[in-house]
């Protein structure tokens, strides 16, 4: 398990499917994950569920597409979730029932 507490890669200019590499087949004890204002694209990977210690998850302003994976329900400690200004569509997972600490939620731009 990696004990990295926060990962801030906002406005660095990363391209592509890098988020899958970060979350795939790893168990992170990361609490803050900020990937805002880069050039990531594609579907959000189900491997996001590996980030179960998250309290702050910020994916604003990307080109992510598809549905939000139900695995984000694994974020039991999450307080802040922003997936706004992406190209996400479809069903929104029933996360409010499992995330008792959630106080900020931004789905702006999400299309059902």
From TrEMBL:
Organism of provenance: Striga hermonthica (Purple witchweed)
Cellular localisation: Membrane
Predominant location: membrane
Any one Gene Ontology cellular component term annotated for this protein: membrane
Keyword Transit peptide: no
Xref: InterPro entries: Leu-rich_rpt (IPR001611), LRR-RLK (IPR052592), LRR_dom_sf (IPR032675)
Signal peptide coordinates: none
GO molecular-function term, one example from the UniProt record: kinase activity
Pfam families: LRR_1 (PF00560)
Name this polypeptide is given: LRR receptor-like serine/threonine-protein kinase ERL2
Highest taxon, organism lineage: Eukaryota
Keywords assigned by UniProt, alphabetized: Glycoprotein, Kinase, Leucine-rich repeat, Membrane, Receptor, Repeat, Signal, Transferase
